[in-house]
Design goal:
heterodimer; A: 119 residues; mainly beta; 11 strands; globular; B: six-stranded mixed beta sheet
């Protein structure tokens, strides 16, 4: 099992450019979550997706940020017109296709992260 | 929403000593509390978790305790080793469908174990 795969691991963008971060969940997981980690801070929830559906995007900034998880292919976190404040590590996590209480619920497996630097 | 506080922010111990990290939470509906270990340049790795129907859970040198009345939970590492050096994060979440996967994290504790 390859685990949660994220790419690129490092991305450098100039202000105003677009950043695209990709995440492939663990095999058999259909729930994907994106978290952002600013320097010396904990992880902050951004968005929760299932295949072709955004379930909870209450942690996403209102502008410039979007996420998708298409029927085929990885989940994409897209940041348009990046600014220096977007520099952070972006982590993707996945969980089993289980809702509510029970084994496996809320057990998130994280990827190694994508580190975005905006110059 | 939930607010998780974590202390201390840094912790240095001698190899073989014990390390304790404490967290408090604000939402009484939270009932799932995982702990993650993050090594430099890597993603967080789940090391132990506890649900609100138990007060303590142990896994070899690692244990977690939960006091729901006081809304705090702690990570205990015994017989520490240099490879335990990392940043440790606590988290909390209500285990219900609408917030599945929405973990609220503490700010982390940098643990350094000196040989």
């Amino acid at each position: 099992n390859a685990g949660v795969m994220q790419n690129p691991r490092h991305l450098v963008r100039r202000r105003g450019q677009e950043a695209r971060l990709r995440c492939s969940p663990m095999k058999g997981h259909s729930h994907v979550y994106w978290y952002r980690q600013l320097p010396e801070e904990g992880l902050k929830f951004m968005v929760y997706l299932q295949k072709e559906n955004i379930i909870d995007e209450s942690g996403m900034p209102k502008e410039r940020f979007s996420a998708e998880f298409p029927k085929e292919g990885p989940s994409i976190l897209r940041i348009q017109q990046v600014v220096r404040g977007d520099s952070a590590a972006y982590f993707c996590a996945s969980s089993p296709n289980v809702l509510g209480q029970g084994a496996g619920a809320n057990v998130l497996t994280f990827g190694a992260g994508s580190r975005l630097t905006v110059l | 929403g939930e607010n998780v506080e974590q202390h201390p922010s840094t912790l240095s111990v001698q190899e073989g000593d014990s390390a304790v990290i404490k967290c408090t939470y604000s939402d009484s509906a939270s009932n799932y509390f995982p702990w993650y270990k993050q090594e430099l340049g890597k993603g967080p790795q789940l090391i132990i978790d506890i649900r609100s129907n138990v007060g303590e859970k142990k896994d070899q040198r690692i244990a977690v305790t939960l006091n729901k009345t006081a809304k705090h939970f702690s990570l205990h590492i015994t017989e520490t080793q240099p490879e335990d050096s990392a940043v440790y994060f606590c988290a909390a979440t209500p285990d219900r469908g609408s917030t599945l996967g929405r973990l609220y994290f503490g700010r982390g504790t940098q643990l350094t174990v000196w040989p």
